[in-house]
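Sequence in, structure out. Go.
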Amino acid sequence: MKKFLHLFLCLTLRHASAEVTPLLPTYLGSFERNYYGNKPPQKLRTLWRTSLGTGKTFFKDRINVMSGAGWTGQPLLFQENGKLVLIQVSLDYHVRKIDATTGAVIWKSRLDDSIKGTPTYFDRGEGDERTRRVLITGSRHGFGIDLRKDSAWSLRGLSFDDGHEFWRHDTILTDSNSRDCDASAIVIGKKAALPLENGKFLIFSPDPLQSKTQGQWSLPRIDHQSLLYHKKDLPLYGNELSCESSPTLLGKSAYIAAGCGRIYAKSTATGYTYWSLDVGSDLESTMPLTNDGCLLLGIEKQFIAGQGGVMKIDPQQKGDAAVVWYLPWPDATFYEWHGGIVGSVTLNARYGSAAPGKGNLACAVSVDGTLRVFDHTVFSTQTNRGPRLDRHCKQPLVLDEVKLPTGTISTPIFVNDRILVGYDDGLDLYRVSPRGKLERLDRIRGKMFDATPIVWDGRAYIASRDGFLYCLH
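Output:
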């Protein structure tokens, strides 16, 4: 009788109404991609660490064994029934829900391959508690599958409450060489939207009650699909057409930096493309929204004659007029990259007028480890010819720069007057003075930090390629 009562109470509590407040529910904290937490730490001392395991995945026709979490790999943060909890992905195929106070794993859910991106949280807001809260989660295409013949279930919907699978989506074969999903979705009302690495843009319902059964799987309701490249891109780009960046929400539009070097503005209602800008390169950077309604785009050195760097874009303008300025970084070889920005630009726009530069400062780090702080609203006296050497571009005022010990593809975060940036051999914490000068406050060496961190209440949470998620304070 006691065992039956215990089971009854467990099932009742499992499906009881939970009070969940999303604090950082998607990549870079919001669908404007410009919020990274409320209060950074003063030092980088380890409070706890949690194992994220090791997994095998195919990369360039060979098997790689990788631990922990890498690019982008940012944790999500929630307050659930009065406690802080994290959602963290891993290269060992698992999504984990973790107690943010202790590092204890609450549940873990296994997918079919390594997970590189960051999930997005969806809450239907009413009805059946068992199906209400969903994590929209991507992964690599599936370890051991035939990429040209088999299904690639690289987009899933998981329960936030206990991790069980609600639905899955097959990322079909296209001209692209990838069937992964690294992007983090945006949520618009009852729908979600994101690009897949096969070059398709999806608008769909993440609600499990809207899914349909096909064979042994539940599939989400797809409302729109369209390509984020043109056939005319193939001679230059070949099959390197994958969309790895996350869309930015501006009004009712999704702005997407596509692998074909073009930015698309898509209606989140219909999927209609009403604006585009041909920038060039292989765009992997997610674009944050500035306080003056513009987007900051990191550009890698690939498929372009000029240098990689950062571009400020005004989406209210068309053609060359949309490019406010361009800031190039010197070419530098780092693994397969030859310069520019693989991570994303971040800015202190959400931290008020008391923040250095009155919220108009931004930072980015190039693949060779050059971290720059600049005011995106002030022009310098220098000019350049843009990433394709085909236009006259102004430059913003660079306030300071430092060279990290090694290169990086990670995304720094800029919270008030602090910058936290990872690289291939460590993690640095900087203070930004009122004049935009960088002062290093602390440093960790000997661990690879490709993933993007978050901060909250004086703690930083960041995954490392050494196999662990760290809580630092």
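Check: Residues 202 and 225 are 5 Å apart (CA to CA). The longest strand covers residues 370-384.
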